[in-house]
Amino acid sequence: MFDDLRDLYQEVILDHGKNPRNFGKPDGFNRTARGDNPMCGDKITVYLTLGSDGRIADVRFDGRGCAISQASASLMTEMLKGKEPKEAEALFGAFHDMCTKDEEEWTDHGPLDEEAMDKLQVLSGVREFPMRVKCATLAWHTMNAALHGDPVASTENAGF
Amino acid sequence: MFDDLRDLYQEVILDHGKNPRNFGKPDGFNRTARGDNPMCGDKITVYLTLGSDGRIADVRFDGRGCAISQASASLMTEMLKGKEPKEAEALFGAFHDMCTKDEEEWTDHGPLDEEAMDKLQVLSGVREFPMRVKCATLAWHTMNAALHGDPVASTENAGF
Amino acid sequence: MTRPATLLSDAPVTSNAPYDVERVRQDFPILTRLVHERKGRPGKPLVYLDNAASAQKPRAVIDAMSGLLERDYANVHRGVHFLSQRSTDLYEATRDKVAKLLNAPSRENIVFTRNATEAFNLVAQSWGRTFLKTGDVVLLSYMEHHANIVPWQLLRDQTGIRIEVVPVLDDGSLDLDAYEKALKTLAVKLVAITHSSNVLGTVNPVRQMARLAHEHGATVLFDGSQAVVHRPVDVQAIDADLYVFTAHKLYGPTGIGVLYGKKAVLDAMPPYQGGGDMISTVTFEKTTFREAPYRFEAGTPPIIEGVGLGAAIDYVTALGLDAIQAHEQRLLAYATERLREIEGLRIIGTAPEKAAIISFTIDGIHPHDIGTFVDRAGVAVRVGRHCAEPLMDRFGVGATCRASFGLYNTEAEADALVEAVKATKAFFG
Amino acid sequence: MTRPATLLSDAPVTSNAPYDVERVRQDFPILTRLVHERKGRPGKPLVYLDNAASAQKPRAVIDAMSGLLERDYANVHRGVHFLSQRSTDLYEATRDKVAKLLNAPSRENIVFTRNATEAFNLVAQSWGRTFLKTGDVVLLSYMEHHANIVPWQLLRDQTGIRIEVVPVLDDGSLDLDAYEKALKTLAVKLVAITHSSNVLGTVNPVRQMARLAHEHGATVLFDGSQAVVHRPVDVQAIDADLYVFTAHKLYGPTGIGVLYGKKAVLDAMPPYQGGGDMISTVTFEKTTFREAPYRFEAGTPPIIEGVGLGAAIDYVTALGLDAIQAHEQRLLAYATERLREIEGLRIIGTAPEKAAIISFTIDGIHPHDIGTFVDRAGVAVRVGRHCAEPLMDRFGVGATCRASFGLYNTEAEADALVEAVKATKAFFG
Ligand SMILES: Cc1ncc(COP(=O)(O)O)c(C=O)c1O
Ligand SMILES: Cc1ncc(COP(=O)(O)O)c(C=O)c1O
Which of C230, C234, C157, C156 is nearest to C192 (CA)? Predict the structure, then answer.
């Protein structure tokens, strides 16, 4: 019945969805933002710790959401640790392209963590599900808002 | 080309339309009202003199309008002189029925001036022209408003 | 009772005849379509259970709108030419039909708006700004749609009114004790509560609520958006001062909604929007306005939409709202029972009197994921907050899955929903 | 340039091809109908010259709306199911089409409203209440439609703004000297003037007017209701801050209008109406709103109407607005010349730059009577004040007769008008 949903809901996603890594509010952090997807009721909070070297020392999140958004948030936390903010942004840009555009339309976001990009491939299935793109990108929008000092991110305003 | 318009625009109407009787503001009067038909831009004013016997001693009107509304006003002024207010109202009621309803639906408005009713027959052609009913009844609405002490009458609010 | 013209047989059908849902379905062209067709894979038959968001349209409505445009269209009112008269007659006839549908005393009680949302904004700005002052209480409930929340918040920011909220019991019923207490203890000037909840299905005892409100001198506004579609409604029997609904949920077009108001209430309200058609005379110094309902209808009205709504009302009244209600109640009972087979499934909203709306959640699977899965099986349900975020908070859920039934739905479609949900559960293991 | 799909031939037609009005007419089902048919008497072919009130709809528009309802309809936004996505895509595509039609920088500049009238009310209440204070001047003109007068009067009553009015010259041109003087001497915060008059046809020099207004720090709002239908419009070239039009005059459906706004202008405006779809999150304490344009679109949007408007834009752009303009200008010249044959006929509005609209009066015959007569000959014109009462006063007439031409009108139809008017004159002697 659901054959073509297996592309979207791959094992990795179901696993991260059920057992999200780096879940829960940490004791200490120095950047945070709340992300809101009014479309499905998802609300997540991302907690960032920027180290004295300017790199991301820790990322955690909490909140609830669908399998896609939880998995995306969980995967994101795993791959941002140790990155410079601008590396994180580049990864977000490339990931956003992956979720929304055909490969030939991806823009150049500078040098990327290829291993991270490979892992993020599991989420690229959302491209076939336009209504689910926001689920996949919510955590990233929120992380980006936290980096820029915005308290709230909403995917709702990013297009319709 | 306009054969069936001859029922609406009979000679009497064209005559009264071109040479309205009792036209122009009188020096003295004791009741007046302004009538407004926003549909076509007609504006007329009716001036009534109620005598000490309670009867209508004089009726005049001014303002502009289409042939139908001018003729209707002119005819009205000719037939109201000497009438009691409630006779005028009865005539208005019967005339309104004539312009809007099939004969079997006319309601009883009490004893009527049959001669006046005969004359008003020339206007009964508007029944076939729903959009022109207000032209035919504007002067009467306005007269009625004057009798009741309302400064303004608008046909616009009487149905759509 | 006569059946709508589009039904196939010529034989007159009385309201005692059993409700023939298969014949009704033939009136709705969209119901025969397949969804998710792809090359090499056949599509799935559409199972449309998103009626509370918007209903599908019968052939009669589609044809009434096309027919108007093919034969009789022009701008309405104030035109002397043939088409303008035709168009005006067809459009204004719907005002009579709405009056009859709601048992309003007269066509003059019926104001056409853009949708239900605009009707609430109209009341808030016109009635609210005139009759409410700082500190006056508008009494809402936790089961309101955003359309009946946000306009009052905007008014609150402008004028300092107070918003108080009647709680909802665990089964999804309105807390009537709290309602009565609020009327007794607060300066309630307006009760603005839904007749039927778009999430819980709960049908509120509006007659009793209106009586209580009137005893305490409050005006009542009911949101009938989810009520008129499922049952006969009589605004005079209810004694509603103001009543709102939206055409697109009543099998009619988008772009038109209805505000019913008692004559005295409408007459006391100043205009909302200004423009053509709602004025008597205009100069730059002074403008005078027409009487209600026309005073509230500025500019070119929703002509095509009015004609479509008229056809929709003809359609549902020909089927009979009693018959529709009976059919949907059977479906509701059946679907509820079948969904209860599924372990971990929680139905939110189990009030004794309900419209055919079932909101549910499933342990461990997010509604959004359920929505995507059942959609692939051809089943259209709505997932999310249903424009009722405070209610979601009340029940401690971020979102729900909502199946809402209409006059053309069948038990087989309820089965399809249940099977799709079961398969989804199996997938997530 | 490609022709609309409904045109009969498959051969591509370039914009250099002569404008084939007979083929265009075949796209409009209503144009083949007879009016005033009665038993024993054949009807008269419809000569529809009431386009400024509302235009007829091409088959492509009718089919787009029916097609949506037969195949792809559901409520838009926030739905994960197949039909909701289809419907959303079809509806939102129109935002892009409108942006392209007006050469707006982005789809985010486009707000959908109920009609032009609502767009003015939106600007008056949202922008006006935010940026105008007591004594600030809103500069209108004597040729405004009531839709661009009454909302400002309502605002004046609420906040004490001042309304000043630019005169109209005897030929129907705007008095540009007076316009410039008003900007220099008054505290003008907003210029709200029409791009093209619905009575006089006058096309105002909006580019120059915007430049002057901006030099004096005023914001400009143009009423494009009668402009977008007759010519290409480029809001960026004009440098309009706000621009309004209504779909039903552009061969699209009723129930939808457009407000274009510069991003900075829209971003600074608070919400107008509250409800679903325009919010981010709602609690009873605090609600946050979405960005423009969505913030201004409360409740279920005009979905069917949006799809119809999209088809209308496709249709007119396929024909080419340049080509339409050229065709209509030829007609205007021809009809003007022919009407001038009639003794005692006075054309009101003879500005050098005009849209194809001719208002006239005839000595000794009231426009209303003319309207009834020409209607019997099958010719639909509008008579009355055309929702522009101050302009009627300015020209000392109670009403006019107005013939307004659209993309499907012909010289033969202008002839029919002239013959009918002549016969009317003969009747009245
Ligand atoms: C110049 C002008 N502005 C505004 C309007 C109002 O349009 P609508 O009635 O669709 O709101 C019209 C048409 O009636 C018009 O001609
Ligand atoms: C109970 C209720 N009220 C109001 C509305 C608003 O209707 P609309 O979006 O047509 O204005 C809805 C539907 O969305 C509803 O379900």
Answer: C156
Q: How many degrees, rounded to 5, is the angle at CA A23 between CA A18 and CA A24? A: 135
CA nearest neighbour of C141 among D273, D284, A41, D300: D284
* Residue ranges making up the domain that contains B34: 2-154
In this structure, the strands spanning D219-223 and D188-194 are: parallel
Cα–Cα distance between A41 and C397 in angstroms, integer?
9
Average pLDDT over residues C377-387: 95
CB contact under 8 A, B40 and D366: yes
Q: Does B39 touch chain C (CB under 8 A)?
A: yes
Q: Pick the catalytic residue: C53, C93, C387, C397?
A: C387
Residue D116 Cβ inside 6 Å of ligand 1? The answer reads: yes
Report the gap between the CA of C282 and the closest CA in chain B (Å).
10
> D199 with D357: CB under 8 angstroms?
yes
Position A160 in a domain: no
Which phi and psi (to 5°) does residue B76 adopt?
Answer: -60, -45
Which domains, ranges and CATH numbers included, belong to chain D? 82-317 (3.40.640.10), 321-428 (3.90.1150.10)
Domain count, chain A: 1
Ligand 1 pocket check for D198: Cβ under 6 Å: yes
Predicted-complex ipTM score = 0.93
**Among D77, D80, D288, beta carbon nearest to A160:** D77
D58 CA distance to ligand 1 centroid (A)?
A: 20
**C-alpha–C-alpha distance, residues A131 and A34, integer Å:** 21
**What's the CA gap between D202 and D194, in Å, rounded?**
9
Is B145 part of any domain? yes
Mean pLDDT, residues A106-120: 91
Residue B124 lies in a domain: yes
For C106, the closest chain B residue by CA position comes to: B159
Closest to C176 in 3D by CA, of C4, C352, C410, C409: C352
Cis? peptide before C205, omega within 30° of 0: no
Confidence band (pLDDT; 50, 70, 90) for C16? low
At B61, list the tokens. Answer: 């009107």
User: Residue B85 domain-assigned?
Assistant: yes
Indicate the burial class of C216 (C-beta count within 10 angstroms; 0-12, 13-18, 19 or more): middle
Question: What CATH number should be reported for the domain holding residue B28?
Answer: 3.90.1010.10
How many CB atoms are closer than 10 A to CB A98? 18
Query: Using an 8 Å Cβ cutoff, are B65 and B37 in contact?
Result: yes
Tokens representing residue D118 in the block: 């609502």
pLDDT digits over D62-112, tens only?
999 999 999 999 999 878 899 999 999 999 999 999 999 999 999 999 999
C401 is catalytic: no
d(CA D425, CA D362): 8
Q: What is the pTM of this model?
A: 0.94
Q: What DSSP assignment string belongs to D203-268? A: B--HHHHHHHHHHTT-EEEEE-TTTTTTS---HHHHT-SEEEEEGGGGTS-SS-EEEEE-HHHHHT
Specify the long-range contacts of residues D103-108, CB closer than 8 Å, at least 24 apart: D103/D233, D103/D234, D103/D235, D103/D236, D103/D237, D104/D235, D104/D236, D104/D260, D105/D236, D105/D263, D106/D263, D108/D263, D108/D266, D108/D291, D108/D292, D108/D293
Distances (CA, A) of A65 to A7, C27, C123, D290: 19, 39, 37, 20
Give the closest of A130, A131, A154 to D280, CB-based: A154
Q: Using CB atoms within 10 Å of the CB of residue D373, give its burial: 0 to 12 exposed, 13 to 18 middle, 19+ buried.
A: buried
What is the CA angle C316-D252-D52, rounded to 5?
Answer: 115
The 10 Å CB-count burial string (b at 16+, else e) for D309-334 is bbbbbbbbbbbbbebbbebbbebbeb
Helix (H, G, I), strand (E, B) or coil at A88: helix
| DSSP category for residue A50 | E
